[in-house]
From TrEMBL:
Species for this entry: Novosphingobium humi
PANTHER family: DIOXYGENASE, PUTATIVE (AFU_ORTHOLOGUE AFUA_2G02910)-RELATED, INTRADIOL RING-CLEAVAGE DIOXYGENASES DOMAIN-CONTAINING PROTEIN-RELATED
The protein's name: Dioxygenase
Keywords, comma-separated and alphabetical: Dioxygenase, Iron, Metal-binding, Oxidoreductase, Plasmid
Entry annotated with the keyword Metal-binding: yes
Record carries keyword Zinc-finger: no
Cofactor: Fe(3+)
Molecular functions (GO terms): dioxygenase activity
Length: 282
């Protein structure tokens, strides 16, 4: 009986792509297939295990809707989203760090005036006054930057997950003033579990991992001539800062709210954008 030539299978698959007109697609698949085939050989993957993997990916796709992207969750919990982010958004010294985009961005929201509340209904939570500035790497204020923000309600759900919340609740857009400043009123965010009733939750359970994210507020900041910044601000002291389910925490993004006399809290944070042409770190 002839011994199978496992390496020949890999090479034949790669050779079949030799005439692919998209050179970048050919490069990515060539490298990706080599690693995939190597992993299958190294683990001596069984047919039953491969069938289970196909079924898992099938169920993951079937769970995706306009409001929920299970594949983004999968990418997040496997650390892939943060790796891609690290490769593509290193802005250099002094530039604000980015983190995962997440699956719950709901599109650009209406512009609100500086200092406006992003709540569309009352909530049980500690009032939080957030003020930020947006500047260049040279320290110059950036006027007219678009600042988009979103966060969960105290029940740990975003409005797109919860039919009881008004559309656009705890979401808003702002433009920075001439001095690069913006401000809004919200409530202190809470830690929450990413959706764990699907394939990603089943995977986390099988791996002995929890699905929790530390309390945070999302920011996406765009301005002409600068690289878009997608990031969070995390709340100091949260129990999940060291074990974020999606690996998104960076120490520079952890803030400690200051207590005010009226019992509310305040946070100030300086965001710094990289030039659009800033070089990338390898």
């Amino acid at each position: 009986m002839t011994k199978p030539d496992f390496a020949a299978i890999t090479e034949a698959t790669i050779d079949r792509m030799a005439e692919a007109p998209n050179a970048r697609l050919r490069e990515i698949l060539t490298i990706g297939l080599r690693h995939l085939h190597d992993a299958i050989r190294e683990t001596r993957l069984t047919e039953t295990e491969w069938d289970a993997a196909i079924a898992f990916l099938t169920r993951t796709g079937q769970m995706c809707t306009a409001e929920r992207q299970e594949f983004i969750l999968l990418s997040d919990v496997l650390g892939v989203s943060m790796l891609v982010d690290a490769l593509n958004h290193a802005g250099g010294e002094g530039v604000s760090e980015s983190t995962v985009f997440g699956p719950f961005y709901a599109g650009r929201q209406p512009l609100l005036a500086a200092g406006a509340s992003i709540l569309k209904r009352p909530e049980e939570g500690t009032p939080l006054h957030l003020r930020g500035t947006v500047s260049s790497a040279l320290g110059l204020p950036i006027a007219g930057a678009l600042v988009e923000v979103w966060q969960t309600a105290p029940n740990g759900l975003y409005d797109v997950q919860d039919q009881e919340q008004p559309v656009g609740h705890l979401r808003a857009s702002f433009e920075t003033a001439a001095d690069g400043s913006f401000a809004f009123e919200t409530i202190l965010p809470v830690s929450y579990a990413i959706p764990d009733d699907g394939t990603v939750g089943a995977l986390l359970k099988a791996l002995g991992r929890h699905p929790n994210r530390p309390a945070h507020i999302h920011f996406m900041i765009t301005a002409g001539g600068f690289r878009r910044l997608v990031t969070h601000l995390f709340i100091d002291g949260d129990p999940y800062l060291e074990s974020d389910a999606v690996f998104g925490v960076k120490s520079s993004l952890i803030v400690q709210p200051q207590a005010l006399a009226d019992g509310s809290l305040a946070v100030e944070y300086p965001f710094t954008l990289a030039d659009a042409w800033a070089g990338l770190d390898g």
